[in-house]
Specification:
Blueprint: E1 4-14, H1 16-44, H2 50-76, E2 80-89
Antiparallel strand pairs: 1-2
Helix pairs in contact: 1-2
């Protein structure tokens, strides 16, 4: 059974401003998620937050790169084509108990 599914998240040609709004909104959502995750793990549970910290650095760099790309498109009078897919795979959780066999 194939447990990986692909979904088209974005597809289209946008003005530089539209592309900036769409792309930066996605990145902002991820930044917000990792900020909350970091705060929750750090404050409430005392867990390691290194993953969230690394991901926040990556996302902030991506945000600046996307701003630069959109500004370049605006400066040259170009449009921005965006194609984005998301893949979702179901993987067994290490904490999951195996099903109990029927008697």
């Amino acid at each position: 059974m194939n447990t990986t599914q692909r979904y088209k998240l974005l597809e289209g040609t946008f003005s530089p401003d539209e592309a900036r709004q769409v792309l930066l909104s996605l990145v902002k959502s991820k930044i917000d998620f990792h900020n909350l995750e970091k705060l929750s793990n750090e404050e409430r549970f005392g867990r390691d937050v290194a993953h969230s910290e690394r991901r926040l650095v990556e996302l902030r760099e991506l945000r600046e790169t996307l701003r630069t790309v959109c500004q370049s498109a605006a400066d040259t009078g170009s449009r921005v084509q965006v194609n984005g897919w998301i893949e979702i795979a179901l993987i067994p959780s290490p904490e999951a108990e195996p099903p109990t066999p029927a008697i």
